[in-house]
Amino acid sequence: MTRNRVPTIELGGTHVAVAVVDTSARAIIDGTYRSRPLNSGSDVHEILENIAAAARGLGSDHAGRWAVAVPGPFDFAAGIARYSDVGKFDSLYGVDVRARLTDALDGEAISFTFVNDADAFALGEYAAGAARGLSRFCCVTLGTGVGSGWVVAGERTDGAAPGGELHLLEFEGQRIEARMSRRAIRAAFARRTRPTAAVPDVKEIADLARSGDPIAREVLEDAFAYLGRALAGPLARFEAEALIIGGTIARSWDLLEPQLSDGLGRPGLPVIRAELSHEAPMIGAAYAADAALLGAQAL
Hints:
Blueprint: E1 5-11, E2 15-22, E3 27-28, E4 34-37, H1 44-56, E5 65-70, E6 74-75, E7 80-81, H2 97-105, E8 111-116, H3 117-128, E9 136-142, E10 146-152, E11 155-157, E12 170-171, E13 174-175, H4 182-193, H5 202-210, H6 214-238, E14 242-246, H7 253-264, E15 271-273, H8 279-298
Parallel strand pairs: 1-5, 5-8, 9-14, 14-15
Antiparallel strand pairs: 1-2, 2-3, 2-4, 6-7, 9-10, 10-11, 12-13
């Protein structure tokens, strides 16, 4: 049935990815996933045409009810971008993305459901990943910044953060991303080493830590333990059953998990590595779109 074939777009700061998700199997249909570079600093026409071109590549063998995982700030209900001075997609500010994509897809779009990318990642893990069977959990993605999705009974909530955005919380006098993010870790390493060459990325810093470099290990331990302390209060207020961790920095799980768990100080709370990678936000967005359709039909 084509109703179960949900065409999905995942929009990132440097790429746009598309795929058709089989919502009955909760999986991306083989051969449909593709990704292409995207310059989020370009003008509105170039950005939207790049997205539409990727979407058109999926053809028409789907339900035409599009799911779109996008970063905030975004009016998800109205489909209007609210990016302003955030370093990406600023040219989309105030643009009705739903209307523009509907026109660009020329009859191949019946509807659009927009979902915050962090929420979509969490819902993807709930539908097909590490959070299967959990009724109340928080999913944190670690990479360029700190993303968070809070899920109760298969639906996103704001959890214990403003608008569900954990990165907006302050802890120990600063925003969380000032101590725990790709930028923060690299800056901390640079302050300690005063490198004459380019500052290594987090993966290289993790490799140095594993090889016995004391500065690299201290920098990572400080960031990961800080994150645990920062999450302890919100997770307790939310009464989370588990904490799921994804994102590129989670690839350093051997270094991340012990410090994060110690910082949390809650031995009974499972800290689980996400099972999915690029599939998670696409499966989650499609899951949300399918749930929205079923809810509308029930009215």
